[in-house]
Amino acid sequence: MATMTDEENLDGEKTGFFSRLKKSLLKTRDNLAGGIDNVVRGTAKVGPELMLELEEVLLMADVGMPATTKIIAELKAQVKDSRIRSNDEVTARIKEIMAGMLGEFSGTLDVSANSPFVVLVIGVNGSGKTTTIGKLAKMWRAEGKSLALAAGDTFRAAAVEQLQVWADRAGVDCIRQKSGADPSAVAYDAVHAAIARKMDVVIVDTAGRLQTNQNLMEELKKIKRVMAKALPGAPHETLLVLDASIGQNSVSQAKLFHEALGVDGLVMTKLDGTGKGGVLLNITHELRVPVRFIGVGEKAEDLQVFSPQSFVRALFEK
């Protein structure tokens, strides 16, 4: 599954992907790119005053202090090296820096690397975890892959039913047990079923009760251990789903999950409803983990493979 390049986005069906991305980032574009544009076109010349104004814009757009510090430091270094001589060059340099930061740890998810390829999906309730699983199932099913979904959020009947609906829509199996069952047992059964049926992919849903962090993390660790017994090396991808609308709070969530479980990739959902999409820069900078997918709307096709170049281009293109 290849990441879309800017050139690919300019023709054919992929133009629709980029159009949806641009539309979804409208609020973030107003906050981030709009603010940068106002500063660059203002009265301050390239120098300390301009840098302070840019720093303020980045922080207001939820880029976060660590990522903002890196961006400003690189800009200052380029000014010192005379690579930036005028205000007009500032925006172009910022775009290059941002794309470099997002691309440093980017990488597509190759589910053909193992058979079955086991994906453990984690995140707090309300982040869009179950919906993301459904969209992934539909996407991979359309690529001809056979899948099983595991309803591991066993303490919320609504989550199990929602996953079943998505499984039915995608035409894939849903492995489930009675309400309140041990989530690790569901995951174990799903992996064994996938092995027996020679399936390509298993996606495991999990609980996300943030109010009981310690218990939740221990439960998720147990799921990982049990899956590894069913299939050595599983899960092959621990995918963390984050809600873009909570801004910098998603950074602390990401750190919590990463420290406890070791996150392999990120999914950022709900970018279409927030002006806080700049947080993506800080999350990748802090966690040093790739963003695999982004959610730009409610439809199944609105879950997109993440492309750093397309993301930055959509942020700044009017």
Write a brief structural summary.
The protein has helices spanning 6-9, 14-24, 26-31, 33-40, 48-60, 65-80, 87-103, 129-142, 157-170, 183-196, 213-230, 249-261, 279-287, 308-316; strands at residues 117-122, 147-150, 173-175, 201-204, 237-243, 265-269, 291-295, 303-305. By secondary structure, it is of the alpha/beta class.
Mean pLDDT: 89
Using only CA atoms, what is the Rg? 21 Å
Order of strands, widest sheet? 3-2-4-1-5-6-7-8
Helix-strand category = alpha/beta
Ranges where pLDDT stays below 50 over 5 or more residues in a row are: 1-13
Distance between the termini: 29 Å
The number of distinct helices, counting runs of at least 4 residues, comes to 14
Give structural attributes.
318 residues; alpha/beta
Overview of this protein structure:
By secondary structure, the protein is an alpha/beta fold. It has helices at residues 6-9, 14-24, 26-31, 33-40, 48-60, 65-80, 87-103, 129-142, 157-170, 183-196, 213-230, 249-261, 279-287, 308-316, and strands at residues 117-122, 147-150, 173-175, 201-204, 237-243, 265-269, 291-295, 303-305. Strand 2, helix 9 (157-170) and strand 3 form a beta-alpha-beta unit. Helix 4 packs antiparallel against helix 5 (48-60). The longest helix has 18 residues, at 213-230. The radius of gyration is 21 Å and the shape is elongated. The two termini are 29 Å apart.
